Amino acid sequence: MVPGLTGPVTMSARVAIVTGGTGALGQAVVMRLLADSIVVAVPYAVESEAKALRARVKPGDDRLLAEPVDVTDGAAMLRFADAVRRLHGRVDILVTAVGGFAPGALVDTDPATWDRMLTLNLTSTFVAARAVVPHMLAAGRGRVVTVASRAVAPPAGGFIGYTVAKAGVIALTQALAEETRGRGVTVNAVLPSTMDTPANRAAMPDADRRAWIPVESVATAIAFLASDDAAHITGSLLTV
User: Fold this and answer.
1) Is 44 a catalytic residue?
2) Are 62 and 69 within 8 A, CB to CB?
3) How many domains does the chain have?
4) Does residue 8 belong to any structural domain of this protein?
5) Residue 72 belongs to what domain range?
6) Relative to the CA of 147, which of 99, 137, 213, 240 has its CA 20 to 30 Å away?
7) Apex CA 50: angle with CA 16 and CA 12, to 5°?
8) Active-site entry in 162, 163, 188, 219
């Protein structure tokens, strides 16, 4: 059991794991899933962000479980997923909302930035899926929703580390959809365009934000792909 990951065992409610659940998009996803009566477990890195997420949950609502976990560490994520399954008897949904952005064409991108983009965006997705999908396959049911980017389909120049990492998320999503096809597990990706987040506002203070997408709209798309209504959709790329 992951230290601190305790709570009432609930065998009936659907259970989701949301990586990146304390970020701007992740918090919107968590709140939407909670509104849909889903138990949500969040592995997080930044304590202040976790505190902000907990503050958004109604007092007495014990359906949110949040624990510090390195989501790029395969062993740590395996322990977290196993603990969630033991506590609730199931893991029905995985949303991989961890990510990061760095600008830079190839000649301007140093190896450390390249590695960071791949780790944050692609490796974190692989690690989470590898920890959770076996539980879903054993149960014969599950929904995996990854977060890629509309900006990399087709691939764009100017932010090559991010582009390649998010394009890798798309490839991973579609390959995993084929590996799980017909086994009760669906795997789909949402591809948001520029989202209206505090980080994007700070990075682009003079941008025209009229076309930016509210994180709640992306969360709605994710909630749909995680629902029973999307039971026959797999390997899809939903642009938002």
Assistant:
1) no
2) no
3) 1
4) no
5) 15-239
6) 137
7) 25
8) 162
